[in-house]
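Structure tokens please, single chain.
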Amino acid sequence: MSDVREELVRLLPQLRRFAYGLAGNRDDADDLVQAACERALEHIDQWEPGTRLDSWMYKIVQNLWFDRLRSRKLRGDAVDTETLEPQADENAHRAPELRSDLSRVSDALQRLRPEHRELLLLVCVEELSYKEAAALLGIPMGTVMSRLARARLQLQEHLRPAPAHQEGQP
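Here you go.
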């Protein structure tokens, strides 16, 4: 049991990133991770030793998030860029620009359908393979590939700058 707890502690940064990507803000992400850890520890007997604990935990976070979406009808909350930690590197002078970019990407992610957003997070942020994401979500790999392709196109469309008005046009 202590090995499972230690592995769970090691997974916390990944779970927090995933939850933050789903929720769009730190407070909700931290609440999701805490609730997922509580649920996992309460139902540890349902986890099969030898299987991937990270996949099981991602699924718990995902289920909790969808439960919250259904119960609170929580959609499209914006990221509070004022609470983001400042950059402490050689690019610190670009912090306002980076915050703006991060805010745009976060807003664009929140505009995606939940099933598209979670796939982008699992594959592009958490670096799960298509096969791992398919197994985690309980969907065929072809569905993963098509949803991921649509998600990437939609994200690109949301991030495309608005066309500038040409002279003489309203």
